[in-house]
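Q: Got a minute? One more chain.
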Amino acid sequence: QVNLVESGGGSVRAGGSLRLSCTTSPRAFSAIAWLRQAPGKQRELVAGFTSGGTTSYADSVKGRFTISRDNNKNTVYLQMNSLKPEDTGLYFCAAGRLLGSFNSWGQGTQVTVSS
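A: Always. Here it is, folded:
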């Protein structure tokens, strides 16, 4: 398993921006992603790097969110722009061998977007 620590959550108004960070133990995984859990909704994969290194985004965040990584810092970022109230949720970082097949999870960081 990989140790994952998220940071950067907070409360913003609609239209605002936040950048989440996920710091990992030295790379021992192939795929890594950000997921979110909103009250009463299923956990959703928001953005991720596949095992081949390509990016994948949920349709609901395309054009607004950008996932990036700094391998020197063992950190994966999620830049979130033009935030909407429906983006509110607990955001998790997860890693594993394949996107969608995760065996390591962070504790999560809360994002709240008010209208």
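A: Residues 49 and 55 are 5 Å apart (CA to CA).
Q: Perfect, thanks.
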